[in-house]
Inverse folding.
């Protein structure tokens, strides 16, 4: 009996799952794995003008507090604020000065202080900002469930 005849079938059966993993892995390798990574991926999507990707990091029932205003869903924020958020992120430079993150099994909090500089709407900006994001586990990843943004001109900056 010629056993080499059976080997290609066995080899194919063993390699098929490994090949499938190599096809799936690149997409998963880019996926954020921590709450802080999720926050960074959200901001990166905004800077790149990829609103669809930015929205994908948000929970459907997200609440966003920004400068005293409130949006109570991803769809609402997306239709009202996303275009301006994309433009702002593309035209300015946001630098994280400090970040703290804590998490338990299904919830996380990421708190950041930032310095945002650049020109927007014909004005030179230098803003000190604070950002609080609450996230909850969604399957294998994290979704942003709440954002609270606040900013003011940097002390000593031109008005």
């Amino acid at each position: 009996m010629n056993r080499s005849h059976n080997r290609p079938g066995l080899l194919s059966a063993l390699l098929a799952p490994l090949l499938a993993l190599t096809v799936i892995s690149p997409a998963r390798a880019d996926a954020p794995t921590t709450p802080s990574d999720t926050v960074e991926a959200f901001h990166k999507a905004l800077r790149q003008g990829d609103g669809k990707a930015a929205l994908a990091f948000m929970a459907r029932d997200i609440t966003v507090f920004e400068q005293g205003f409130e949006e109570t869903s991803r769809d609402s924020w997306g239709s009202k604020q996303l275009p301006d958020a994309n433009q702002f992120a593309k035209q300015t430079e946001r630098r994280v000065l400090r970040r703290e993150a804590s998490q338990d099994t299904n919830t996380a909090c990421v708190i950041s202080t930032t310095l945002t500089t650049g020109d927007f709407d014909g004005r030179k900006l230098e803003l000190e900002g604070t950002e609080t994001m609450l996230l909850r586990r969604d399957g294998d990843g994290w979704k942003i469930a709440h954002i609270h943004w606040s900013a003011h001109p940097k002390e000593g900056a031109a008005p």
